[in-house]
């Protein structure tokens, strides 16, 4: 785990150095994360080295918000007239963060699908989807009622005696 923290710290320092040297308007931590992403794409085996350290940091991520919360409480009296602007800023930035995250997730999923199409065929879901299912024969018009009903598997559960027990029944 020490090696993982060392790699993460070196990437953070490299990001800070690049941000200051190139006068980027982006925080060094963000540049370091971009460097980490590039490094992990270039050397996927490095993920095993940083995995333990990253898991530990994520597990205790809430502790990293304590200093920011204390800072807000300390200067709250000076922000009394600024709350509407702060709330709008928080809502807009949170919405943008969610949209960017969704876009990155979709782009990554597409990239991974193009990168390893053969690996997807080896998954149990793909194997189950590729098995041929023969449809059951349709009943003739003579032995069906005038209204066509959905197959039993697709029917919603009835409220009659043959219905599946509900959660209340399980709790009693």
From TrEMBL:
<dbReference type="Pfam" id="PF03788">
    <property type="entry name" value="LrgA"/>
</dbReference>
<keyword id="KW-0472">Membrane</keyword>
<keyword id="KW-0812">Transmembrane</keyword>
<feature type="compositionally biased region" description="Polar residues">
    <location>
        <begin position="131"/>
        <end position="149"/>
    </location>
</feature>
<dbReference type="InterPro" id="IPR005538">
    <property type="entry name" value="LrgA/CidA"/>
</dbReference>
<keyword id="KW-1133">Transmembrane helix</keyword>
<dbReference type="GO" id="GO:0005886">
    <property type="term" value="C:plasma membrane"/>
</dbReference>
<feature type="transmembrane region" description="Helical">
    <location>
        <begin position="85"/>
        <end position="107"/>
    </location>
</feature>
<keyword id="KW-1003">Cell membrane</keyword>
<protein>
    <submittedName>
        <fullName>Holin-like protein</fullName>
    </submittedName>
</protein>
<feature type="region of interest" description="Disordered">
    <location>
        <begin position="122"/>
        <end position="172"/>
    </location>
</feature>
<feature type="transmembrane region" description="Helical">
    <location>
        <begin position="56"/>
        <end position="79"/>
    </location>
</feature>
<feature type="transmembrane region" description="Helical">
    <location>
        <begin position="27"/>
        <end position="44"/>
    </location>
</feature>
